[in-house]
Amino acid sequence: MLSKRRGILHLLNGVRSLSTNITNKNKAEELMNSKQVPQDKEATLYIHWPYCQKRCHYCNFNKYISQNVDHKKMKKCLVRETKTLLSMSGVERVKSIFFGGGTPSLAEPATISAIVDCVSDAVAMAPDAEVSMEANPTSAEWFRLSEFKTAGINRLSLGVQSFKDSFLKLLGRNHSSLDALRALEAAKTLFPGKVSLDLIFGIPNQTLTDWKEDLEGVLKVCDNHISLYQLTLERGTNLFKWHQAGDVSLPNADETADMYQIAVDRMAEAGFRRYEVSNFARDDSVSIHNLSYWTGGQYIGVGPGAHGRFALPGGNNRESFLWPKGSKGTDTRAQFLDV
Ligand SMILES: C[S@@+](CC[C@H](N)C(=O)[O-])C[C@H]1O[C@@H](n2cnc3c(N)ncnc32)[C@H](O)[C@@H]1O
Ligand code: SF4
């Protein structure tokens, strides 16, 4: 059955049926009312999918490499946690959903739609609310992405990292630049104007010329949003170990600062506005979800590597939220609450 939210999308697309019309009418009324929702009843939602196909050499995000993911169980748990946190937070309106990872493009589309549906069933959500997903080039074929689109995704963030295969290898990525270009083309046909690319700079042995070439490469093929991240050396990663052992060296601080400045200038020249440290958008294609973090908006985090920031209904009852009555108080991954 169509969710309420996707019912509205279908209506907008010209699909007519009595049941969706009734659902849409209810939802439209709900949305009208939601205009009155005060800011402390509004939040964005981050959903963490914790699995990857391979561990990249630089990444210490919370992730697991598994060939035997229990998708049924994951769907059940993520839906349950979403419902629980929405209800406990007292949030009445969700502005955007972001599926991050790990590699959420490895999740089953049914998991994504179950979560999107459960949000739109529980709280008000605009029919065109931003629903983003991070994707890796090796799990972003056209058909797969089209299934995610049907599941409710309307914005995609693709991890390209570099257009040079030697750097992709050094970073431990499991794709080539050609794989990334193919995935990008598929993404642009399905989510026109709503595709973002991630690139990394400050990679071992990377020169200013290498970086300039990557920037020109990305500007040739990109859509309207680009994220440029400085490589951070993270404890526990292979890159950290190799660096400690003196086997790799990173560009020095001045070189890395130059890379950033070159990027900022080139992006501006190409019509991209820097709306936070690492993110650039043109034609107003900022990520609503990302902007909300940077402007102090409330967010709820669901999944094993997520955290949140929101005020509780009724004031500072942090303790009762962390340790609900009768519980043994063992969930230390509960949300941190600014009240
Ligand atoms: C955690 S990943 C999740 C999305 C997806 N798995 C991917 O690799 O694109 C999100 C972004 O964080 C970047 N990232 C992870 N560790 C990083 C680090 N140590 N320094 C800079 N960027 C990093 C990734 O390269 C990616 O672009
Ligand atoms: S960078 Fe992305 S694909 Fe690589 S290990 Fe981290 S989350 Fe997984």
CATH topology category name of the largest domain: TIM Barrel
Ligands: S-adenosylmethionine, iron/sulfur cluster
The CATH architecture assignment of the largest domain turns out to be: Alpha-Beta Barrel
- CATH homologous superfamily grouping of the largest domain: Aldolase class I
Q: Rg, please?
A: 21 Å
Helical amount among residues, as a percent range? 40-55%
According to DSSP, the number of beta strands is 11
How confident overall, as mean pLDDT? 87
- Tell me the series of helices and strands, N- to C-terminal: HHEEEHEHEHEHHEHEHHEEHEH
By helix and strand content, what is the structural category? alpha/beta
The CA-CA distance between the termini, in Å, is: 39 Å
Low-confidence stretches: 6-29, 326-339
Helix count, per DSSP?
Answer: 12
Main β-sheet: number of strands, strand sense, barrel status?
9 strands, mixed
Number of domains: 2
Q: Can you tell me the CATH class of the largest domain?
A: Alpha Beta
Question: Could you tell me the strand content as a percent range?
Answer: 15-25%
GO biological process, one term: porphyrin-containing compound biosynthetic process
Domain Radical SAM core: 37-273
Keywords: Chaperone, Heme, Iron, Iron-sulfur, Metal-binding, S-adenosyl-L-methionine
InterPro entries: Aldolase_TIM (IPR013785), Coproporphyrinogen-III_oxidase (IPR034505), Elp3/MiaA/NifB-like_rSAM (IPR006638), HemW-like (IPR004559), rSAM (IPR007197), rSAM_sf (IPR058240)
